[in-house]
Recover the amino acids of this structure.
């Protein structure tokens, strides 16, 4: 078949590669002139296979009023009555129920495990260089309540391949000398030695170079999609600013823009853009290099050591601003990341920190939507939220299986659109 993949971020690229490997003729369409742009360009860098808990939770629901009123809150909603946010928010509140959270965690863990395996195979087979390493992940908790909740969750789950260790404050600081905190500032931590880091933008660039060597992959970049072309209840083409593209099947991987395309196709896609920020620091030689990726749970910030050749950087990322489609940088949020870097790592971040922001495509329950749409011929692989880099390769595998009507590796349809309706 000829399959058109709409979107050339990490989700679209891995999907296109998987479909081409399966023998399909693929054309990749994206509004940007290069691949790996938008939310894939400078994300947190963590490949977080064991920590896949959704944003929606009973604990967050209890804290939401105080979070929204706090000036420096990691979550912000711009004042105004956006009907799309109201509809999404109602579903978000339902997703905060305990049974919904556990269902999501189970599904995400399965997809994350598949994604880890697929990424390892892909990077080894193609010899991709993007700084992939097993750095381990330390999650630090500042309040006793959050720490006790995390410890209880680990006890319920038991141990597995991603065995998690519960640490005291002193053990956290001994494990990661790069942290400049006092033991009195921490309640404890959870460490997972098997977690990884990698540069998503470098991965996209390396994979694109390999894909351009294939004869069954075409490219139409710098071509924003104008709208769908339907006939008899089926999608048979898309109009772009560079002309019409016809195909047998289409895969929607347009990130935060997926919702608007779905609306033009005549159905509702429960995806809302959640803006995140990052800065990229080059630590001075006289500081302790960060050995592990670190997550500050209370502030919802991540710190990941990334390597590109001989160069070592630290990616600091986080924040969840619900501001519709506003992709402009609010430098007050960049200042939040600067101050956190100074406090947590003792690094002067007053110089060039390569500020970035991007719109993450978030579903109410944080699970991506991977399955057929109500419009014949259109498949959806979108809505990965904060875990796009982690879940990309597994999502691509699942997409290819479902399009080719092979028994999916993950059964039961936990990512189908109807589950989020």
């Amino acid at each position: 078949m000829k399959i058109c993949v709409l979107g050339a971020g990490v989700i679209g690229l891995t999907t296109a590669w998987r479909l081409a490997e399966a023998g399909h003729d693929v054309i990749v369409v994206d509004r940007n002139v290069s691949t790996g742009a938008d939310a894939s360009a400078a994300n947190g860098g963590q490949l977080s296979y064991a920590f896949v808990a959704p944003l929606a939770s009973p604990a967050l629901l209890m804290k939401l009023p105080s979070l929204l009123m706090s000036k420096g809150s990691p979550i912000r909603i711009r004042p105004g009555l956006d009907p799309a946010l109201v509809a999404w928010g109602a579903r978000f509140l339902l997703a905060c129920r305990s049974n919904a959270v556990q269902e999501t965690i189970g599904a995400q863990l399965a997809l994350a495990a598949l994604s880890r395996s697929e990424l390892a195979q892909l990077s080894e087979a193609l010899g991709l260089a993007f700084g992939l390493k097993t750095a381990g992940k330390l999650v630090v908790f500042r309040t006793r309540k959050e720490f006790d909740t995390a410890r209880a969750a680990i006890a319920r789950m038991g141990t597995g391949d991603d065995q998690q260790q519960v640490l005291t404050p002193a053990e956290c600081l001994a494990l990661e000398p790069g942290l400049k905190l006092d033991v009195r500032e921490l309640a404890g931590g959870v460490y997972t030695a098997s977690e990884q880091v990698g540069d998503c933008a470098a991965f996209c660039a390396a994979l694109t170079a390999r894909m351009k060597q294939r004869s069954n992959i075409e490219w139409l970049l710098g071509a924003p999609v104008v709208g769908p072309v339907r006939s008899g209840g089926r999608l048979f083409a898309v109009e772009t600013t560079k002309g019409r593209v016809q195909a047998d099947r289409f895969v929607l991987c347009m990130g935060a823009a997926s919702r608007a395309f779905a609306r033009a196709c005549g159905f509702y896609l429960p995806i809302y853009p959640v803006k995140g920020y990052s800065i990229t620091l080059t630590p001075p030689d006289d500081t302790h290099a960060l050995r592990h990726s670190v997550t500050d749970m209370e502030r919802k910030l991540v710190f990941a050591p990334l390597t590109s050749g001989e160069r070592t950087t630290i990616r600091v990322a986080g924040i969840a601003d619900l501001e519709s489609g506003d992709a402009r940088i609010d430098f007050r949020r960049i200042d939040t990341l600067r101050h956190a870097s100074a406090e947590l790592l003792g690094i002067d971040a007053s110089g060039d920190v390569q500020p970035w922001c991007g719109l993450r495509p978030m579903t109410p329950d944080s699970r991506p939507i991977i399955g057929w749409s109500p419009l014949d011929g259109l498949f959806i692989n979108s809505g990965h939220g904060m875990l796009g880099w982690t879940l990309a390769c597994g999502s691509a595998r699942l997409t290819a299986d479902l399009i080719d009507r092979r028994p999916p590796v993950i059964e039961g349809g936990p990512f189908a659109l109807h589950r989020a309706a």
Remarks:
- Residues 2-136+194-420 form a domain with the FAD/NAD(P)-binding domain fold (CATH 3.50.50.60).
- The CA atoms of residues 334 and 355 lie 7 Å apart.
- The longest helix spans residues 98-126.
- The longest strand covers residues 311-322.
